[in-house]
Amino acid sequence: SGIPVFASERDEASPFILAGGPLTFSNPLPLSPIVDAIVMGEGEELATRCLEIVAASRTRRDALEALAKIEHVFVPALHGEVLPRPSTAADELLPAHSVIRTPHTELSNMFLIEPERGCSRGCTYCVMRRSTNGGMRLVPKEVVLERIPRDARRVGLVGAAVSDHPRIVEILRALAERGTEVGISSLRPDRLKDEFVEALERVGYRTLTTALDGASERLRDLIERRGREEHYVAAAERAKKYGMDRMELYLMVGLPGETDADIDECAPFV
């Protein structure tokens, strides 16, 4: 018939599907035929509440009706295409961090922690531009260091814009004093000042990785990236100055509006 079979119309024995996170709530409607409900916005408080409702409900319909009464939960079978406002959450609930450390993972024995969540930048291709709390949610330096176990030899600082944390250099220096090896999930080229690159070297960096993103200055302007050629040149000079072996650049090829001229600008620059 062409009419989607909504999750609420499936057999009661089929799994209840609850979705969430920035990728899902940035564009929820394509998921409507697949999921029972979507948590819109920050989930620290909402996720547990929703799971308790599902666990306590006798039928799928009971669960859907209860979830639909929560201000920030989208239930496609009952809401249609009317999307609720995304939720916010208190910064005091952060940081998220590892509960289990084990050698049997890709990031062997690395303790992961979020010194921030969200992003204050507005890159056009990124779902984090829809950050629900109006930008970055910062965790104080003291809290970050307190939550990292003293015996953690490898630490991963995770987030969409970790290098934008105003006290990131102080955090790295403190971890260097502990003899900790550190990895950071994102390094913005305009943040790679002398003191930052020096701190990265002290926590074990041998490869400086950042993102070129667009192949030309024109494309970087188009996607609202702040990286300029002088930032990358300066970062390369500092990587060499502090004894790093190489520099890596992430790059997207095939952006809308890209031409051969953009690629021709990129190749000689790199």
In words, what does this structure look like?
The structure is a single chain. Helix 2 (46-56) runs antiparallel to helix 3 (60-68). The strands form four sheets. The chain has a three-stranded mixed sheet with strand order 1-2-3. It is an alpha/beta fold and 270 residues long. The chain has ten helices and ten strands.
Largest β sheet strand count, sense and barrel closure:
3 strands, mixed
Proportion of β residues?
5-15%
- Series of secondary-structure elements, N-terminal to C-terminal: EHEHHEHEEEHEHEHEHHEH
Q: Average pLDDT across residues? A: 91
Count of DSSP strands: 10
Low-confidence stretches: 1-5
Summarize, please:
It is built from ten helices and ten strands.
Structural key phrases:
single chain, 270 residues, alpha/beta, 3-stranded mixed sheet, globular
